[in-house]
Amino acid sequence: MWDPQQYLRHSGPRLRPVLDLLAHVPGRLPGHPRVRIADLGCGPGGPSAPLAERWPEAHITGYDNSPEMLREAEAHARPGRLDFAHADLARWRPDPAESFGLLFSNAAFHWVPGHQHAFPDWIAALPSGGTLAFQVPGNFSAPSHTLLAELCGSARWGGRIAAAAPVDAVLTPAEYAEILAPLGPDGCDVDAWETTYLHRLTGPDPVLEWVKGTTLRPVLARLGDDPAARDDFLAEYAEALRAAYPRGADGTTAFPFRRVFVVAVKR
Ligand SMILES: C[S@@+](CC[C@H](N)C(=O)[O-])C[C@H]1O[C@@H](n2cnc3c(N)ncnc32)[C@H](O)[C@@H]1O
């Protein structure tokens, strides 16, 4: 169960990588100006607005497998321009009747282990010049994640939530480039890089509040029927996070966040 409101609390810093990714996607895509765009793992529709702004005549479809996120996203729908559909990215393949110029995804593929195995089909479905562009968090070895993994495997919690520990399904920029470069009859031009953002968070337990919207979601779902255990778990995790991410003299909490970006243009 996703909680769109919790996720949207950090919509400002979460939008920046979308803009950084879009800045590296070619402006003129196949089908121009009515480019067909898929937003894979669209969530509550955050990146839809910048996509629609960049390609004002495009027809964009956001795909997601969370009913809660899709309900929230519907508020952004515009007939013929922007719509949303239920899909599981592990199985989603472009409809051959569509000719997508851009397959876009922000902060979603890390929830889909083995997502790279879909790349050959996705690139095959693109016309020449068509682009796959995505961003994934690459912070699984950061304290926010390692501390959570330790707690999930601890004697106290392991029996209930071991399966909710974060799983690192993200490859390095070089690994993504190696997979994508040979795909298609003439290969792909691949631009892959990583950036570590330094978020400066405010308020009490700000790192906990951030991960509540994403990484912590499977744990919270498993403890959902036991509020007392949920509160105990959050108190223990919050204490560990406070030690790993102390508040600075100016009152902000520095939260480094590595992200991996890939733009593959089919030749
Ligand atoms: C962190 S949110 C990102 C949402 C949006 N792209 C954004 O940038 O605001 C991750 C999204 O991926 C979706 N997701 C996770 N696994 C998925 C799957 N197997 N199929 C489709 N969507 C999935 C979740 O439902 C969630 O909405």
UniProtKB/TrEMBL annotation:
Entry's localization field: Cytoplasm
GO MF annotation, one: trans-aconitate 2-methyltransferase activity
Gene Ontology biological process terms from the UniProt entry: methylation
Methyltransferase domain: residues covered: 37-130
Swiss-Prot/TrEMBL catalytic activity: trans-aconitate + S-adenosyl-L-methionine = (E)-3-(methoxycarbonyl)pent-2-enedioate + S-adenosyl-L-homocysteine
UniProt entry tagged with the keyword Nucleotidyltransferase: no
Main location as per UniProt: cytoplasm
A Pfam family this chain is assigned to: Methyltransf_25
Keyword S-adenosyl-L-methionine carried by entry: yes
Domain of life: Bacteria
Enzyme Commission code: 2.1.1.144
Gene3D superfamilies noted in UniProt: S-adenosyl-L-methionine-dependent methyltransferases (1.10.150.290), Vaccinia Virus protein VP39 (3.40.50.150)
InterPro entries the UniProt entry points to: Methyltransf_25, SAM-dependent_MTases_sf, Trans-aconitate_MeTrfase, Trans_acon_MeTrfase_C
Keywords: Cytoplasm, Methyltransferase, S-adenosyl-L-methionine, Transferase
Family according to the record: Belongs to the methyltransferase superfamily. Tam family.
Primary role: Catalyzes the S-adenosylmethionine monomethyl esterification of trans-aconitate.
Name of protein: Trans-aconitate 2-methyltransferase
Species assigned in the record: Streptomyces oryzae
Gene: tam
